[in-house]
Fold this sequence. Notes:
Strand order of the largest sheet: 3-2-1-4-7-9-10
CATH topology of the domain at 113-283: Four Helix Bundle (Hemerythrin (Met), subunit A)
InterPro entries: IF-2B-related (IPR000649), IF_2B-like_C (IPR042529), NagB/RpiA_transferase-like (IPR037171)
Oligomer: single chain
Number of helices: 15
Number of strands: 10
Distance between the termini: 106 Å
Protein name: Translation initiation factor eIF2B subunit delta
Order of helices and strands: HHHHHHHHHEHEHEHEEEHEHEEEH
Shape: elongated
Structural class: alpha/beta
Family: Belongs to the eIF-2B alpha/beta/delta subunits family.
Strand content: 5-15%
GO molecular function: translation initiation factor activity
Region (Disordered): 1-111
Amino acid sequence: METGKKVQSEGSEKTKQEIMAERKAKKAEKAAKKSQPIKTTEHGAVTILSESIQSAKETTNTVKADETGKSKADLKAERRQKQEAQRAAKAASVTEGKQSVAPKVQQGKRIPDQIQADRPSVEKRLVKRYVSQKVPQLPPAERKVQLFSHLQQQERTLELLTKDLAVNQSKIHPAVIKLGLQYASGIICGSNARAVALLEAFKRVISDYSTPEQKELSRDLEVSLKPCINFLKQCRPISVSMGNVIRFLKRHITNIPSESTDVQAKKCLHEEIEKYIHENVELAGKTICEEASKKISSGDVILTYGYSSLLLQILLKAFNEDNKKFRVIVLDSSPRSEGLQFLRRLVAFKIPSVYMLISGASYVMPEVNKVFLGAHALLANGNVMSRVGSSQVALVAKAHNVPVLVCCETHKFCDRVQTDSFVFNELGNPDDLVAAVKGKPSVHSIANWRELPKLSLLNLTYDVMPGDLVTAVITELGSVPCTSVPVVLRVKHAETVI
């Protein structure tokens, strides 16, 4: 058995070797067979393929030549011309697209018309608007200041404002006409007083309004208010507080449902107006008085500038209700001399007061403990817009390390950015400068200043105070820095949206 197994294993080993040898032989035969046809027919196959390709090209060329009658070179030239034309058209479309996008970006940065008075196109547009709305037009000033040629410089008198104004045929409500004349004559002045008076006038306009047939109140009422607003602009430029009031009223007018009746809509608007006055003016003033009176201590010497109804409430509360004994120094300047009225009010309530002109600010500042100032508006970049001369008072206080506290309601906050008093300002009547010094022999020579060809009088109304000169701003939200304007505006906008 052992010998049989050995023989079988040896036989099996031989068969494997034989199988391997047979496989190698078959592979060699296949390789030889493959190499023999390529060697023998290589040139023939290549020639056959080349001949077939050439024949196909010749047939296509002949077909094209038969169809178009053009050679191969002509067809290539035409294809190149088409490709170049397509590339040129594509490049032109790209450049036109860029040019069409550029003006849209520029249109978004439109400059307000109120600071483009020196452009004829803007003047024509305003004249066309006033003519269509039957708003009186004022003639340009006889003597303009070139540095402020971009601002409106007009001859603004009561006679010119009412010359071509027919009350019965005008689109302007009589209450608005009365209010505009009070603005122009200075009877109503101050940001709060002007804003409240505007809301009261709009209440009367809304009460007398009736919606025409086939029109909606939410659209037609806003259109009917535009002549009234433009008339007020002619009487005196719109203040920041008035601009906020106008935007507030327009927003509520557009939000009136179309299915509501005139009675319901008028009632809703009256309630919103009364709510605005109560919350943003009355309650805000009381809150500021409580916050500002905490900053006053007995024995303080407080310096104020000009007249401010809010500052008067603060001083009266601290002196009468809180029983704090202090002294007030009132600085003033021409031509309005508003400090005299402020002084009379303080003396009437038996508050010790001293009256001085702004030229004596550096002389009296060493004995001052705190400076309280009012504000026309608080700008988005932290600067304070107030009556002209406020920046000088704050600068002197800063030099003597005296804290400057500005009292301002949040309804005077605006998103406008301004760094100086030249880009935008209100130009007062230059004759007021002459009237303020009338009777003094040293200045009688400028009484007839219009006859002097090289003399121009400039009467600026507002001044821009840098935020670095202000210690804090006292609002109904508390004492906040000047840089908090964007945050306050964002929060108020979110509340209105909700």
